[in-house]
Amino acid sequence: MSAVPSYFKDFLANIRLSNNQVNDLKTGHSDLRKRLEDDETLSKIVTSTFLQGSYRRSTAVKPKNGNKSDVDVIVVTKLDADEYTPEEAINLFIPFLDKYYEDKYRIQGRSIGISLSYVDLDIVPTSAPSESETGILRDDAIVSDYTIEDFQQRLLTKSILLESKYNIFCKSDTQSEWKSEPLLIPDREAEKWDKTHPLEQIYWTVEKNKNCNTHYVNVVKAIKWWRKTQYPETKHPKSYPLEHFIGNCCPNGINSIAEGVVLTLENIVSNYQEKPFLGDRGVPEHDVFGRISVDEYSDFYDTVCSAAIIAREAFDCDDFYDSVCKWRELFGNEFPPAPKSSNSGSSGGFTNRVEKSTSIPEGRFA
Prior knowledge:
Number of strands: 9
Number of helices: 15
Structural class: alpha+beta
Shape: globular
Strand order of the largest sheet: 1-2-5-4-3
Strand content: 5-15%
Largest sheet: 5 strands, mixed
CATH class: Alpha Beta
Distance between the termini: 36 Å
Oligomer: single chain
């Protein structure tokens, strides 16, 4: 393996969730889902639970500053959105929460947060609009705790059983009808049931990762880490809105994480000087950036302008030592330090670019 890719491999290992953090997530969500299944009252209305969020999509990075790992649990119910207000739907969970998570939960706008000593959980109650959709949501592949990278790894081992299950996470003409049907989520603040399509976000990510030669989820992790550590005071975008934006800007066909990072940042700078409307996966009328102000986006854009310059310099640099130093400037101390000496003028395994991308527009640099 050439040197710079090996540095990115070590960098990704440093910013991933640790084995202990993953085990904590599994313990937390498994206990929660089992309790929901066994609860005398909720078991009558809950038809399925499955994992969602950055952990499921393999785009999570380790928490910082004493924060805990978190996982989202979609809870599919039989509740009729025409018969229950969002407030009433959420309130049905309170006796369960008082029993198992007293003084550890908080009611949020569209979910219920549970803070344990070792992990944070989010219960996301939803309603399936049809019985056929409910049946699909009980599929083994969907209710499993496999992440996208888990499926990807098992495909590489040629597991026929898992490969057949993996197909439910991929697009096909025969599945397009049921996949187009979003779930309904109770929005207490807006006092209405809104649409959400967590499975479409997973399908989309699987396809994008495949189209990016499996580098996409790691590009997301790298840029999330840059955003989290280098500009922690910049409030938005973060979490899924940031991931969604990266997905729109990362080109297909990338051959390395480094290339994906550079081109994604440059695409943002070149094509999104103003705050865009980002239609959600499966619910295109919902703007993922809807809660981000123009000023917040402008601040974020300025940080991307600066980052894009550093990333391009690191990517095009002919000297291996200087290249590693530039990547470390971009990503911080979790990116491995450069060797103490280098052969001046040697790329050290770093692939030189034959042709540079379009230059970054001037102006708006923080």
